[in-house]
Design brief:
Length: about 210
């Protein structure tokens, strides 16, 4: 009986955690919270990816410009960029360094965590851990799906973004001309260029190196 119980425990443990040993790729879905229609991306990254690297991957795939601070939050743990600003405003003793923490060390399948970009506009994203997978592609990270274009930087948040879209539609609106000049040229909120995103992901190391140089 003892051996049977031991074997049952081993099999149970193995089925639950085997993916942590065998599967190298994590598939996650990133959604801009409260966006309607939903602005989302589905990506696959290596399990050894740090949260620092994930931040840049999200920036590329969502279409942000990487101008502002960011923070991940999972089960009460705050993970972000340790800087003079974060030390002064948020307390470095509470903020874990995103460069030191790998995804595989923190997340599990089915978990949901949050990612906030730009504490002024407050772009909140929900990250769903969908699956752990075996490696079947030549290059990672890779974006495998997505819909809608992300808002322009510094537009004031989601509510302001949707107000701006209404102004763009109304040529008689007193702010229409100003809004057209401010928005990116030929901005289409319904188009997400997945090919462009994946092309940029192929140069992730250079992208991060350029960002670090400022």
């Amino acid at each position: 009986m003892g051996k049977q119980i031991w074997l049952s425990l081993v099999l149970s443990f193995s089925s639950k955690y085997l993916h942590l040993i065998m599967d190298e790729i994590i598939q996650i879905k990133i959604s801009l919270m409260n966006s309607s229609p939903s602005i989302w991306r589905e990506i696959q990254v290596h399990r050894e990816t740090t949260f620092f690297e994930l931040h840049h991957i999200i920036q590329i795939t969502m279409g942000w410009q990487n101008y502002h601070l960011y923070e991940f939050n999972t089960e009460g743990y705050r993970i972000g960029e340790i800087s003079e600003d974060s030390m002064e405003d948020y307390g470095s003793n509470e903020l874990l360094n995103s460069r030191d923490i790998k995804l595989v060390d923190v997340i599990t399948v089915g978990e949901t965590l949050s990612y906030e970009y730009d504490f002024g506009d407050g772009w909140l994203h929900q990250i769903e851990v969908q699956n752990f997978l075996s490696c079947d592609k030549d290059e990672y990270p890779v974006c495998i799906g997505g819909e809608m274009r992300c808002p322009p930087e510094d537009c004031g948040g989601l509510h302001s973004f949707y107000d701006s879209l209404e102004i763009l539609k109304d040529k008689k609106h007193p702010e229409h001309k100003e809004m057209v000049q401010w928005f990116p040229t030929k901005y289409d909120p319904y188009i997400f260029d997945i090919l462009k995103a994946n092309k940029q992901l192929l140069k992730l190391d250079k992208y991060i190196a350029k960002w670090l140089k400022g």
